[in-house]
Design a protein that fits this description.
Blueprint lengths: L9 H4 L20 E3 L4 H9 L5 H4 L8 E3 L4 H16 L4 H15 L30 H4 L2 H12 L10 H9 L11 H11 L3
Antiparallel strand pairs: 1-2
Helix pairs in contact: 2-9, 4-5, 4-7, 5-8, 5-9
Length: 200
């Protein structure tokens, strides 16, 4: 278990902090990512044909590096929809949803995780692996998808230029992970999920 303490943007966002968030990807045998060298043609076609989504904002500079994807079940799909609903509630656009979903894909594989015992990174919980002891909220709040998304977005809004950053840079500025480049692999799947569910 990684015990590196990481400073977060929580102080900027108006929340107390005393450490960091999840120190890296959580590995679950049932959700082993599939690595892809490029976005599938079908996914690109869906993006191009879906009305009401500002395609230019989804991935402003293209994806960085090899992309991963996982199959989503009902729980993960419901959490995607909850993240999108919270993003809209916060008054933010599709790009914020892409960053939020990509971050959650890295941190929890879109599972609203409770305490994982010996596999836990400190006291990290929920979709974004936020820590109660770092000021993100109570365990009950952090494991509420709307609350945890709004807390993440509060930090994101304090990052100058987040709209035009690669996903991994924007996510890392909020999360301050020990694995700063790990978020990049989820940008295409996050964009595809926003395209699919933004207006559903």
């Amino acid at each position: 278990m990684n015990t590196i303490m990481r400073k977060s943007v929580l102080g900027i966002a108006g929340l107390a902090f005393a450490g960091g968030l999840a120190a890296g990807p959580l590995h679950h045998a049932a959700t082993t990512p599939t690595v892809e060298s490029a976005a599938p043609a079908a996914a690109v076609a869906v993006q191009a044909d879906k009305p009401g989504v500002d395609k230019g904002k989804l991935i402003p500079h293209g994806v960085q590096g090899e992309q991963s994807s996982i199959d989503l079940g009902d729980e993960e799909t419901a959490n995607v929809k909850a993240i999108i609903a919270a993003t809209k509630k916060a008054g933010l656009d599709e790009r914020a949803a892409v960053i939020s979903i990509g971050t959650s894909l890295q941190e929890s594989k879109l599972e609203n995780l409770g305490h994982l015992g010996d596999r836990n990174d400190h006291d990290s919980l929920g979709l974004f692996q936020q820590r109660p002891t770092s000021g993100w909220g109570t365990p009950e709040q952090i494991t509420d998808p709307e609350y945890s998304t709004l807390a993440f977005l509060k930090g994101l809004k304090q990052v100058d230029g987040w709209q035009d950053m690669p996903l991994t840079d924007a996510a890392q500025t909020v999360q301050v992970s020990a694995y700063p480049d790990a978020y990049a692999q989820w940008e295409q799947q996050a964009a595809d999920l926003v395209t699919q569910h933004w207006n559903s």
